[in-house]
Amino acid sequence: MKESRNSSQYLSHLGKDIPAGLVVFFVALPLCLGISLASGAPLLSGLVTGIVGGVVVAWLSGSQLAVSGPAAGLTVIVLNGIETLGSFEAFLLAVVIAGFLQLILGFMKAGVIGLYFPSSVIKGMLAAIGLILILKQIPHFLGADDDFFGEMEFFQPDGRNTFSEIGYAFSAIQLGALLIGVISLAIILLWDNPKIKNNKILKFVPGALVAVLLSIVINMLFINFMPELAVTSSHLVSIPIMESFGDIKSELRFLDINALSDPSLYIVAFTIAIVASLETLLSIEAIDKLDPHKRRSDTNRELKAQGVGNMVAGLIGGLPMTAVIVRGSTNVASGAQTRVSSFVHGIFLALSVLLLAGMMNQIPLSALAAVLLVVGFKLTKPALYKTQFKLGHEQFIPFIVTVLAILFTDLLIGICVGLAVGIFYILKANYKSPYFYHKEEHQEKDYIRIKLSEHVSFLNKASIILTLDHMPHNSHVIIDGENSAFIDYDVLEAIQEFKKTAHERNIKVELVNINDVEVMDLH
């Protein structure tokens, strides 16, 4: 019954999911190739992972809208891993082992970690990704960037950084690429017009598809009639052309089982498993925030899906994968409703390798940059900054620190910095509210009642200790745990230590529903 209900749900949304999947495909195609290039891996390896992410992981995933594939955040790990293990074939074995470790993490229910990422940090990550997409695509939009299409780090392979690359791009504009980019951007924006959205036929045609197809036509016109404007091959999509099954087989790489005796294999595998899992959980949490239906993804199921995906990808010559925020946010922005859109993107990636390589290689990167510029703006709208600012500094500071940290380093380092700041404000908030404090002044002595809250964790320990340290001399202190469902051992120990030494300040301590615990005594 549940399966038939799911099937009808998927069928009812095909009109939105197929166009969305096509748009995600256009974004994912150059990203898969660019990440392969930056990782020092065979070009086809990134596409293999993108195909597995769409065709296999989409159906196993705990999320309806996440899209999996090779991640820019793993390029350094892949590059170093291949170098450490001595060959790409040995590295593939590490990918398979990493997938197995992720599968174990899923069964151990480690996905719960995703629930502990502060909302302000997740929103900061989305805003930062949006900013980076805009800044990184400007040089491609102008036809002046030869670095790989999917790079996200501040410092680039050619020695420039995000901002100096833009400065250079304006001095090296390729006019034909710029014209194609501007026309593509205009079409995508025009397609958001209510008249087109409400048109019975046009609403099923993605604006990105129209823009990409027209970009190919325009470049062909340039080649034939204005060669000086033609976009050069370094600024076009570049897929290996394979005309037979034998060609595909010769391009694919397979793992080297002999690497099992190398201890460094397991270090590389463990690193991939942990980093890929964290990036996946962050992406899933972010996509859930973007989901218009506000569905909660099963993060444990997602870890299992990623584990299976990495095992399959490693076995057939692919790079390690994660749920990728760029593709996921593009998916949401394109109107996707279910996992079918991710599956469609995987099918199109497979077709591009098997049948459409010649046509795909005619797509100017400036047209694809236009797609990402729109996605980037939707992620980092000024209204988001305004909303976070209105929420107060406890929300705004972790948010803006995350944005800046990701912008000037990379995704993982930036997230760690943002989490550190976010955790500081969480600790500060917990420090303030573990109990209710009531003081009654009498002639003989002050009566002070400290009524503990329902849940008192170790995070509250510092606040309670400081309060007890500042109790006035000659007072009567009642610490009441009647309403507490849970009091952490560390807090109980601190209360008992206070009770033990309170007589030195002539303080009488009365405990209500507070369990006794042993306190270390060296005397």
TrEMBL record:
<feature type="transmembrane region" description="Helical">
    <location>
        <begin position="265"/>
        <end position="287"/>
    </location>
</feature>
<dbReference type="InterPro" id="IPR036513">
    <property type="entry name" value="STAS_dom_sf"/>
</dbReference>
<keyword id="KW-0812">Transmembrane</keyword>
<keyword id="KW-0472">Membrane</keyword>
<feature type="transmembrane region" description="Helical">
    <location>
        <begin position="308"/>
        <end position="328"/>
    </location>
</feature>
<dbReference type="GO" id="GO:0016020">
    <property type="term" value="C:membrane"/>
</dbReference>
<feature type="transmembrane region" description="Helical">
    <location>
        <begin position="20"/>
        <end position="37"/>
    </location>
</feature>
<feature type="transmembrane region" description="Helical">
    <location>
        <begin position="396"/>
        <end position="427"/>
    </location>
</feature>
<protein>
    <submittedName>
        <fullName>Sulfate permease, MFS superfamily</fullName>
    </submittedName>
</protein>
<feature type="transmembrane region" description="Helical">
    <location>
        <begin position="340"/>
        <end position="358"/>
    </location>
</feature>
<dbReference type="InterPro" id="IPR002645">
    <property type="entry name" value="STAS_dom"/>
</dbReference>
<dbReference type="InterPro" id="IPR011547">
    <property type="entry name" value="SLC26A/SulP_dom"/>
</dbReference>
<dbReference type="GO" id="GO:0055085">
    <property type="term" value="P:transmembrane transport"/>
</dbReference>
<feature type="transmembrane region" description="Helical">
    <location>
        <begin position="365"/>
        <end position="384"/>
    </location>
</feature>
<feature type="transmembrane region" description="Helical">
    <location>
        <begin position="115"/>
        <end position="135"/>
    </location>
</feature>
<feature type="transmembrane region" description="Helical">
    <location>
        <begin position="204"/>
        <end position="226"/>
    </location>
</feature>
<feature type="transmembrane region" description="Helical">
    <location>
        <begin position="166"/>
        <end position="192"/>
    </location>
</feature>
<feature type="transmembrane region" description="Helical">
    <location>
        <begin position="88"/>
        <end position="108"/>
    </location>
</feature>
<keyword id="KW-1133">Transmembrane helix</keyword>
<feature type="domain" description="STAS">
    <location>
        <begin position="437"/>
        <end position="523"/>
    </location>
</feature>
<dbReference type="InterPro" id="IPR001902">
    <property type="entry name" value="SLC26A/SulP_fam"/>
</dbReference>
<feature type="transmembrane region" description="Helical">
    <location>
        <begin position="43"/>
        <end position="60"/>
    </location>
</feature>
<dbReference type="Pfam" id="PF00916">
    <property type="entry name" value="Sulfate_transp"/>
</dbReference>
